[in-house]
């Protein structure tokens, strides 16, 4: 068991190490031009400078902590509305077949349109604002949340509803609160995790178009104009790391809140 | 004793592939307050349907079901049901499941907890308050389901083959436990089972149903003192009599 873990650890670092070595070699053999690509050794230095707010970058407006805050603001703005609307609609549509039938055509029409295709209309309608970014993020995140919640609610086993009714819960509001919502939480969390992933991608896409002067996506684009691939890649790294942290956050919360679901394991 | 429940000429059809299938064919009997009623009959005869009608989960097509003289319109706080597969809420632990009915009744938290703990003791679940249903054995789940229904203090407790998933040993223990709990709480119990021995062991009277469409074959009175001896002549004779009645 312990040996396994040492081995896994070794494989983990070997994998990353080999990737970085190939990248470094590729740069020095084929590229050798700091204006079109940077080697990982350079990216690491730039990344640290950006994080600690080195004046070299701060003077031109590249402040990674601030950009992160703006991006997280866009993310939370759009994502919280997506949760609100996706969850409520999902709850109603999952509960009532009529509402589901009514919503279905519109959902199926809009859902296949990539969120990125909404950017032009969002900018026309809402101008270059935080709200325009939030709108794109909303479009990206709302469908996974809505559809998963709907699925969760409609697949709550009838026996739980009946059991609750024979225990005195005969009002719809109480059934929703005490049975339907807790029973469909696993599906809801699934939608939340998928939706969050899409939302984070949409943050970057929306910011690329310059909805604000700060934001990780905007700075990637700006750094390209300055021909600073080390900055571009540093920001890419930041986007990846935050995306990973968000995913872990949801997984952690899910595992804590839904430990009842961890079936068959008696500890 | 007064009659708490009257079942009058109840008929029920099911829709099966466009055809109407008669399930209950004119069932009538009364239940007295505090009585332990067993309902037996072959599998698929409609016992569960009858119980679900009393619970208010289904509606009869003809006839009347009166609770204290008033027709049943739906599920109510005066009746609680224990399901065949327990239907415990998997997202609630043992104490959470038992508190469910008390939360619905808006009983203050402290009082509710005291009450829940009393019933946990009654069914012998001390030490498992924080366990989730998936961590419990079949017999323990059954106890949780029983406590969850009893804690609501319904006038009538409806039970749908609650012991059928248990092994013979545990089932016998649970039968004695049920009789003990029944005599301590003085509830009216309507108990559906396909196991004749179970009904003869526990019930005051046994409603014997035929195979589908279910007709009332007999309303057998069990006069033996409790605890009953499963190997006494009287016990075996009654068991055989009901068995033959269903077979014929």
Report on the structure:
The complex is a heterodimer of chains A (267) and B (248). By secondary structure, chain A is mainly alpha-helical. Chain A contains twelve helices and no strands. Chain A has helices spanning 2-31, 40-52, 55-58, 64-95, 97-110, 119-126, 130-154, 158-166, 172-183, 185-208, 216-225, 229-257. In chain B, the strands form two sheets. A six-stranded mixed sheet of chain B has the order 6-7-8-3-9-10, sandwiched between helices. Chain B has seven helices and ten strands. Chain B is of the alpha/beta class and 248 residues long. The model of chain B has no long low-confidence stretch (mean pLDDT 92). In chain B, α2 runs parallel beside α4 (138-150) and α3 crosses α4. Helix content of chain B is 35%, strand content 27%. Chain B has two domains: 3-78 and 156-247, P-loop containing nucleotide triphosphate hydrolases (Rossmann fold); 85-153, no CATH class. Chain A binds chain B through residues 159-160, 162-170, 174, 178-179, 182-183, 185, 258-264, 266, and chain B through 55-57, 74-77, 79-81, 83, 85, 87-93, 100-101, 103-105, 132-135, 148-149, 152, 158.
SS field, number of helical segments of chain A:
12
Q: Which outline of chain B best applies?
A: globular
Biggest β-sheet of chain A: count, sense, barrel? none
Helix content of chain B: 25-40%
- Per CATH, the class of the largest domain in chain A reads Mainly Alpha
Instruction: Determine the N-to-C terminus distance of chain A.
Output: 19 Å
Q: Indicate the radius of gyration of chain B in whole angstroms.
A: 18 Å
Reading off the top of the CATH hierarchy, the class of the largest domain in chain B is best stated as Alpha Beta
**Which CATH architecture of the largest domain in chain A is right?**
Orthogonal Bundle
Quaternary organization: heterodimer
Largest interface: A-B, 25 and 32 residues
Order of helices and strands of chain A: HHHHHHHHHHHH
Fraction in helix of chain A = over 70%
CATH superfamily of the largest domain in chain B: P-loop containing nucleotide triphosphate hydrolases
Q: In total, how many beta strands of chain A?
A: 0
CATH fold node name of the largest domain in chain A: MetI-like fold
Could you name the CATH topology of the largest domain in chain B? Rossmann fold
Distance between the termini of chain B: 33 Å
Mean pLDDT of chain A equals 92
